[in-house]
Structure formats: C-alpha cells, structure tokens
Amino acid sequence: MGSFWSPLHLLLLLSLVLLTSSSADNNNNDLFETWCKQHGKIYSSEEEKLQRFQVFEKNLAYVNEHNKLENSTYTLALNSFADLTNHEFKASRLGLSASNGLPRNSSFLGGSTVVGDIPVSLDWRDKGAVTPVKDQGSCGACWSFSATGAMEGINKIVTGSLVSLSEQELIDCDKSYNNGCNGGLMDYAYKWVVKNGGIDTEGDYPYQTADRTCNKNKLERHVVTIDGFTDVPANENELLKAVVTQPVSVGICGSDAAFQLYSKGIFSGPCSTSLDHAVLIVGYGSENGVDYWILKNSWGTSWGMNGYMHMLRNGPSKVGVCGINMLASYPTKTGANPPTPPNPPSPTKCSLFTKCAAGETCCCGQTFLGVCLSWKCCPLDGAVCCKDRKHCCPQDYPICNSETNQCFKNKLSFSVLLLDCLYASLCCLTTKRKLFLSHLTN
Question: Where is the Granulins domain (predicted)?
Fold first, then answer.
C-alpha cells in the first residue's frame, strides 16, 4: 500500500503552514505598530525596534496563554511594559529595600489600631484622601511614592486638605538610610520627615525621575508634618483595622511577569513573598464573594485599572498574596500643619533670553532703533534706570543726577540742594538727603 502523504500533499501542507505563519507574523507586526502608537514608543534604530518586537511577541504569547485559563480571577494585557523582558522590568520599576528595614519594634511603633465597626467595604478615593496616580518612571523609588501617598492620606483626614507631596525631596535629601532611585523603605522616609520638621509639595519640588542634589532651600518649606509612624503587625486583621483609619503603605513582591502585565480583576498570584516593591492600600471590598484590597501603584495610569489593582484578601496564606501582610506601616498625625512659608520671589524677566535675580530691576544697557540689545541688572527692586545706562535709583528717590552720584525724591528737592550748594561748597558731602546712585551690574 502506498503512503497516504504524496510529495504533492506534503508540498501543499508546507505551503499552508508557511502561509499561516506569515499571516500570524503580519498580524503581530500590525499589533505591535498599533501598540507603539498607543504608548508613544519610538526606538533609536531598526535593530532596537526588532529586538523590542521579539520581546513583545513573547509577552503576547504569555498574555494569551494566561487569559485562556478558565479559573483565573484576573486578566493580563499588553500594557506599556509589553516591550520589556521581565528582567529589564525588575531592574527599573521596583525599589523596596525591605531587607535593610528598621526593626519592627522601633520606638515609633504604636499599639493596635482602635476602630469602631469595620465597614464591609471602604475606598479612601471616595473620601478625597488619595491624589491622582503618579509614575515613578525608570527610577527605583517606589518607597517614596508609597510614603507620600500615606502622608497625603492622613493629612487630608486630619486637616481636610489634600496636598500632593514631593517624592523628589525624599529621593534627594533622605540619605541617612534610603538610597534614592536605588531603593529605600517607607519607615525611613517617615522618620526623615519627622526629623526635618515636614515635607514640601510636589508642585514646589517636582519629580525628576532621577537622583538630584538636595535642594536645601526647599527643606525649610514644611508644608505637611507628621508626628511619627506605626508598624502594623504581620496580621491581616490588624492590617484591615489600619486601613479603616487611613491609607496604609505596604511592601509586596511586584516583580513577577503576571504583575508586570496585569490588566484587571482580583490578582491572586502565584507570586513570591520576597518583598521588592512598595504600594499603597487605599481601601478594600468584595466581588462575587471574593475579598480584595485596593492598591494604588506608581507606574502611571496605563498599568492595571488606571493605575490600580485589586489583590486577593483573606486568602489561604498568612502573609497574604505577594507578602502584602508582612511590611505594612502608616504615618501618624494629630495636629494642624505649620503656616505655609511664602514662595521665594521669582527672577525678573528682562527678555526672552535674559533675566535678573529676584529683587533686581532690568535696565537696558544698549539700544538700536528702539530695541534693547543688551540688559543690565539694578540691585534694587522696582528701581528707576538712569539715562546714562550706568546707574539706577530707588523708586522713592527716582530723580537721577549721574554727575554728582545722587538720587532725589523730586525735582524740587534737587533744585533746593543745588541752591544750598551755592552757599556752602561742602553741603553735598554733609547733607542727609544725599543718596549715592547704585551701579548697574552686568
């Protein structure tokens, strides 16, 4: 009996396989191009783009395989991290240094949180105690975002004011134990804020996605203060009591591929309990009989559910999914914030490319056809620029006399002084009305 597969059959089958493979490649290419446009991805070369496409295809296969599982409580998606290997992702988006943490019996440790009836569900976003989702970028400073989120929450609860606080100040200035973009711990951040006497706002000390030199002028802006912090025992019931009173910082393992590509649903793992990432619990709830925590992340709104995740609560593990029960803490605050110091004066703008320091006045040093070609700075605020383009006078002595290096209140006082000088040649040296002109500086 002859073989069922003749050479012609084999050729047709091979052609069909090649056509199917080519069609799949084209579909993946189209999907990748659409994804690049959606997330604003631009690569430096075609070689890099090809490399990222290959990573994208592997992540696509992983997402599709997971989403086919019938018993999964969550789904994955091709979010903005879909062109990163899991190793690359872990190297840039985490930053919790839990192994170097303060002892849990720290002097700042408080007692068990005292609460009344525990509600069935709670969302601190509904109470206005949560700022919009932030993005740490490629800086491993998740600890600072978790810490500011918790301080923003308790400040709103105590004072009624929601103020976005500065992660960058913590990254730049909190160097006793924390290490900026190379990792840190929330307890150390709280300890630093207490020692510093407060923390500045996000608007005044904005985020830079990198380590910078500490701006010591900003350290005096103690806009929000805290009294201390409390470490929550590694117990889910105690953690629930804490979340009832305020948003709580927690450490988790956020480095697994499923966490990287999480989209929606109740995340239930599997994941390690080696803590490497910090987030903020902002509430809890239940869905179809399954309990969950509401986590605010610091990876922007393109990850998860607009930057949030629901994580399984009351699961089989005592340490919680991804170790969420192991390293919880929150800042304490009982009183009002100190008066906000005024913003330092801004530089004086002379032209599009020239400016003088705050408290100085711009004076034109050279003109051409009515256009100022160069500017000089008068070391006085609101000063009058003299016609000689070399001097300036205070605004309350606006009359210039460049020849005698004097400024006068008005023309009458100038005339009177001239008459006086006719009778006494030394009067100009002894008069109390004399005021030397200020010299313009380059």
Answer: 350-407
- Across 93-188, the runs of DSSP E, i.e. the strands, are 122-123
Q: Which of 139, 142, 181, 350 is catalytic?
A: 142
Which of 86, 155, 297, 325 is labelled catalytic?
297
**Residue 142 catalytic?**
yes
> Is 277 among the catalytic positions?
yes
Q: How far is Cα 173 from Cα 137, in angstroms, rounded to an integer?
A: 19
Task: For residue range 147-190, list pLDDT tens digits in order.
Answer: 999 999 999 999 999 999 999 999 999 998 999 999 999 999 99
222 is catalytic: no
Query: How is residue 246 annotated by DSSP?
Result: S
Contacts of 258 (CB under 8 A, 6+ apart): 66, 74, 76, 267, 269, 270, 271
Residues 6+ apart with CB under 8 A from 366: 372, 373, 374, 389
Q: Give per-residue pLDDT as tens, 107-147.
A: 455 444 555 689 999 999 999 999 999 999 999 999 999 99
Residues ≥6 apart with Cβ < 8 Å to 401: 407, 408, 414, 437
Query: Is pTM, for the whole model, over 0.90?
Result: no
Distance CA 259, CA 263 (A): 9
Catalytic residue among 79, 277, 385, 393: 277
Please report where in the chains the tokens 């994955």 appear, as a residue.
76
How far is 329 from 232, CA to CA, in rounded Å?
Answer: 5
